[in-house]
Amino acid sequence: MQYQRDAFKSGTQEGHFPPFSTDASKLEALAHERLSQNGWLYASSNAGLGTTHSANREAFNNWKIVPKMLQPNHERDTRTQLFEKTLSAPIAFAPIGINKIYHHLGELPVAKVAGELGLPYTLSTAGSVPIEDAAKSNVVGAQQGYNEGLGAQYGDGLRYYQLYMPHDWELGANLLQRAVDSGYEACIFTVDTWSLGWRHDDVATSNYAFYKGIAADLGLSDKVFMKRMREQGIDMNDLPKIGERWVDSYWHGVPWGWDDLPKIIKLWKDISGGKPFGVKGIQRAEDAERCIEAGCEIIWVTNHAGRQIDGAIASLDALPAIAEKVNGRAKIIFDSGVRSGSDIFKALCLGADVVALGRQWIWGLSIQGEVGVRHVMKAILAEFDIVMMLAGVKSIQEIKENGKDLLKYMPNGVDLALAAKAKI
């Protein structure tokens, strides 16, 4: 809430206004103006006709918050625990690759702001900076946030590594070793993107940064991958060819199966000394159960923001059944379609432990780099706090305990329970 008050005060009394509106539609439109055509198309493209993307938003609209009044919640606590770490709020930075097509510094300002605000940062295997550099930037931000009281609880940051597992086992092991050596505290194995979904505009414009020699820095900084390039006789100055080989090493291949999952978990556990492992891309309760049986501590509920399968279930619609099946045996991280503090509140009510945002901070990065990311995420934090206040709750634990009582399912504005009674 303080960020709102500061904006009012600085604007009216000092003439210093926020850098831009964080209204989702205005934010997206401004990013569209600032980005190149290719940058915009890659950031905004969805699978097929975009029906899954639309379903994500419709699902949020179908759930209505039912606020409680006269609650003594003038002092609220947005903090939550995740694997013995205290987050300033149950909000995370979702992994998004190729950040250099949005800003020349790529993932660095994003990792820094996450550290400042005391929120988990997740680096994608498709990232456009080395694993080590993103970690250093996260630590710098965390130290700054800790020293200045911006929200960071720890001076060493909190970061996860999102894994697209290569079928080259030695390469995969080396990526994980680099992540562990750089202080990443969990591995998030993404299983819904071993091949890209059909995205019309990207295909029509041949919009693929890797094949143009852009954003293969993570591979270029990997000793195993570069050894493979030398073995294959690849010209080290041929960045488009290297970019092609890099992305082809973990996408466009053969999908992993359930029998492979325990082996990948064991690889991470052996390298990391037992740090948490999660699977990202879950939309079915039975798949969540199989992940837990295999040894996962994190279930990441997502449909990749509608970018992989057209006509798929909304991620929010999948969440309640998954949360019921998991029943506290693993932490649930949720993303897809999140645009506001209200959306975060709803997802928490429906069973998420942490809600991750992607496109929102991408728009901020595209508009104004580090300043833009910080502004967007501080606005989200402020809005979430205000929603908690006005909904009548004072802690994340209270949301978890009373989530079902705080929401009502009303598709198209219709209370189905009342409608059923009226028919009787």
Automatic annotation (TrEMBL):
Q: Where is the active site?
A: H304 (proton acceptor)
Annotated InterPro entries: Aldolase_TIM (IPR013785), Alpha-hydoxy_acid_DH_FMN (IPR012133), FMN-dep_DH (IPR000262), FMN_HAD (IPR037396)
FMN hydroxy acid dehydrogenase domain location is 16-409
A Pfam cross-reference name: FMN_dh
**Keyword annotations:** Flavoprotein, FMN, Oxidoreductase
The residues listed in the UniProt record as binding FMN, with positions renumbered to this chain, are: P95, I96, G97, S124, Q162, T190, K280, D335, S336, G337, V338, R339, G358, R359
Which cofactor is recorded for it?
FMN
Binding-site residues, glyoxylate: Y42, Y164, R199, H304, R307
The annotated region (Disordered) lies at: 1-21
- Molecular function, one GO term: oxidoreductase activity
By sequence similarity, the record places it as follows: Belongs to the FMN-dependent alpha-hydroxy acid dehydrogenase family.
Q: What is this protein called?
A: FMN-dependent alpha-hydroxy acid dehydrogenase
